[in-house]
Protein: 4,5-DOPA dioxygenase extradiol
Organism: Pedobacter duraquae
Amino acid sequence: MSLRSQFQQIPLNPVTGTVMPALFIGHGSPMNGIEDNEFSRQWAAIARDIPLPSAVLVVSAHWFTKGTFITAMDFPETIHDFGGFPQELFDVVYPAPGSPALAAETVRIVQDTIITPDHHDWGLDHGAWTVVRHMYPDANIPVLQLSIDYTKDGRAHYELARELYQLRKQGVLILGSGNMVHNLRMISWEMINGGGYDWALQMNDTFKRLILDGDYQPLMRYQNLGKEAMLAIPTPEHYLPLMYTLGLKQDHEQVSIFNDKAIGGSLTMTSVKIG
């Protein structure tokens, strides 16, 4: 039996006895997908420290759509959605299987949002594979993506994530992938290895304080947090995956921060672990 046919026969495991953690990953440059650095090492360390998931569901900044979609193919394509990087990065293929069964289960459990299965248009973009290949380098765990509906506000994405909690009880690792502070137009190459503008550091600290205090309402309405927030989030796609991670949190669960570093002046790698 071929490897491909073996994966196609793997059913979704409905009960694992373990509620998986949830993560928000600051993914940064696509080069993190092939570099051995402080960020990629931390991603790998977290994967070793948490239970082995039955599947990984990624909410990536780079699948921004009208409506909500979920990949539902047996083997999602590795998407190289960037330019100007070394050929080594374009040569990467992350051959993880998908899971049509998990896609169907996600469509079933979410009642307040229509989720449309995508059988061929998308795959795993760099918001997904650059992170997950460090966590699960053998590519032997199903990986899916859930798109971000650009017509919805922060609260709507948070509420959608509340419904996804059931998947955590089925052993699914749900991972938001973006950056809390992400303004590429203001990038400083002098600070590319570390350092942030005052407004970026201020907003990063504000975000962390609100997250650790469990005060999520201002985070859903980040537009009201002042001009610094508008500099930190000139467009919402890299910020909104955070709403999914926070929406997955239950009252009793602990929250921790990792990879808390500003780079390039206007970008933070700050990441969050729930549970």
About this structure: Residues 3-274 form a domain with the Protocatechuate 4,5-dioxygenase; Chain B fold (CATH 3.40.830.10).
